[in-house]
Write a structure and sequence with these properties.
The chain is an alpha/beta fold. The chain is built from three helices and seven strands. The relative contact order is 0.23.
Length: about 200
């Protein structure tokens, strides 16, 4: 029975309208993201590209995130305290409960089936252990997970995090072409607390 449920969920996801599933969308520290007027996106100079992420993939993801932010009235500024960090992990299965025993957290932040997302700017530099309670969906055979964190980098204060998952095909996640990246990032922002400006909203 346990083997049937993941298979059914796998088929349901494949049959859904979008190949992308919003895994989580969570605001931390009662953050009012609308109070921030500027933002900046992590760059390779802030860390290392996640394994498997090519430079062109990073720039396409960053461009899609930038577009979403601009359409919400934010302005990009290299000195902004609001840093948008990017993480990427490809793995075989997602669990809904922590695999690390209570009280043991070598690296803060949520993880997926024992694997931490590979963030360009290490999460341990701004996430405290008490944020390690994020839960994610179950039953997907293979997924790629794209995560973004919003952090007040001056105060090292987590503000918001969202993740989107997609089925992996032939060992490759769908985060590798412009159309796939645009759709993934749209899903990533689907529950973002700051709405699109009126001129960008669909009727």
């Amino acid at each position: 029975m346990k083997k049937i449920i993941p298979f059914v969920l796998f088929i349901l996801l494949l049959a859904s309208c979008s190949p992308y599933t919003l895994v989580n969308s969570e605001t931390y520290n009662n953050a009012d993201l609308a109070a921030y007027k500027t933002f900046r996106i992590v760059t390779p100079a802030d860390g290392h590209l996640p394994p498997g992420m090519e430079s062109v993939t990073y720039y396409n993801i960053a461009a899609a995130i930038r577009e979403q932010m601009l359409e919400r009235g934010f302005t990009e500024n290299a000195s902004s305290p609001l840093l948008i960090n990017i993480g990427l992990t490809v793995h075989k299965e997602i669990e809904t409960e922590p695999a690390v025993p209570p009280g043991y957290m070598p690296y803060p932040g949520p993880y997926y089936n024992g694997l931490y997302p590979y963030f360009m700017y290490p999460r341990m530099n701004y996430w405290a252990n008490y944020y390690a309670n994020a839960q994610v969906i179950t039953g997907i055979y293979k997924e790629g997970v794209l995560t973004m964190d919003f952090v007040n980098i001056q105060e090292k204060l987590p503000l918001y995090s969202a993740s989107v998952a997609t089925i992996v095909e032939n060992g490759q996640a769908r985060f590798r072409n412009l159309q796939g990246i645009a759709e993934a990032v749209q899903t990533l922002f689907s529950k973002f607390p700051v709405p699109l400006l009126p001129q960008y909203r669909k009727n």
